[in-house]
Amino acid sequence: MWARFILLIACLISINTANAQSGGRCPQNIGFESGTFENWKCYNGLVSVNRSISNSPFLDYSLSVSGPVPNQHTIIPRSNDLDNYGEFPLNSPNGSDYVIKLGNAEGGHGAERVSYTLEVPANIDAYSIIFNYAVVLQSPNHQPYEQPKFTVQIIDETTN
């Protein structure tokens, strides 16, 4: 049986640049400052049960844009709560008021994703994105390629 993973993206993103888009400001709601998924795309889907061993962390997922799905894409406001499994704080280390959680504690072969598209100004030589995250993954008795996982992908849409 496939295990669902729980992903807590804590204090999601800080952008550092000499002259970021929007007049030096961070892109709108990139760190979930509004307490919503505004400007984010939420995806929901499945991991193929009949997949073969693959080197690509994205090849075996069937995801589609879904909007936020309750109990799979969750905004968590600042509190004194701790994660049920890792017992770490559910707060952003940079002081943000919100973090997000992907997934839940239910078994299965579900997959969730969030994405944010931003434009790096052409005249910027140094641009960085820093994000903090915590990942809680179940360790079921499966083959290595069947284990739950967390991946990050950054794509230059101009050059792929």
Describe this structure in words.
- The strands form three sheets. A four-stranded antiparallel β-sheet has the order 5-6-1-9, with no helix packed on it. A three-stranded antiparallel β-sheet has the order 4-3-7, with no helix packed on it. The protein has a two-stranded antiparallel sheet with strand order 2-8.
- The chain is globular, with a radius of gyration of 17 Å.
- 2% of the residues lie in helices and 28% in strands.
- By secondary structure, it is an all-beta fold.
Sheet having the most strands? 4 strands, antiparallel
The topology string of helices and strands comes to: EEHEEEEEEE
Number of strands: 9
Q: Please report which band the strand proportion falls in: under 5%, 5-15%, 15-25%, 25-35%, 35-45% or over 45%.
A: 25-35%
